[in-house]
Amino acid sequence: MTIESPRNVTFLKMGLDDVHQRIIDCGLPSPEVLIPYKLCDYKPAYGMIFSDLLEGANFWGHTDIDLAYGCLSNLANEEFLKDIDVFSADDRSCGHFQIFRNEERMNRLFLNVPNIDSCLSLTYYVGIDESGMSIALHQEDNLRWRRASSRKVELTKKQPWMGATIEPGGQIIDQKIDSVESYLWNDGHAFQILANGERREFLYLHWFQWKNHTEKWESLMGSKEWKDKNVHFTLKEWAIHRSKTKILIKTFIYKAVYRSLYWLSPLQKSIFHNLKVFDKARAIAQRNLLIKKESEASTINR
Question: Do 41 and 158 form a contact (C-beta atoms < 8 A)?
Fold first, then answer.
């Protein structure tokens, strides 16, 4: 399939094995088998991993695949970028949209994430791109870190410094379930259409977790209900509550498994070491630790 891209966009085809080899060549820890979602933990390391592709560039960034970009010209211009080292489209390190100055200090900043070697060595995602990098950014001196305000503040602005991260329920994260608005991408601009008809322009539309409900959303997107942009979506409410409940149950089980490791003998640990459930449990435990440290670092820097 031929992809028609804008003149300022170039697609580089690269397989997962190619990326894994680049990680190894950089001397960074990695799991024996690299799964696609684990790449989220390596996002802050892209300045090192893809250094040869970034030669001559002043900035680089990482993003997600479930975004519809709006007008980024307010960011990608000399006036905005001259006074920043990092831009986060959130009030913390933002995994789905973040920009770094292309210099050694910034490209190696991720190495300051607590327990970085063990975090990268685990098979499953632990949150280095978000909680981990938030800790590193808070602890760095003389760092020009520009970021969005809290969502509560940003959602009062006509042009927020963030994207519209849309829950499967139709509302932006931190909005109430009955605060569903409609969304529009038009002529390179991304809007939320408010109940009074006014437009709030975001940097992008982020279809958060929608990919986890493919069949439901494909049928819903073609329905009259969605086209009319009604406020109340029973199907969506059910799906988002079910999703969150499932996550809570899985997390509880993995925590219990992780605690059981303390009661195993060294021989038993060696036998169960490579089981998926234990590896997942370790990753969740490490992620919770990073979240706790992020909260502490954020409180100190308020």
Answer: no
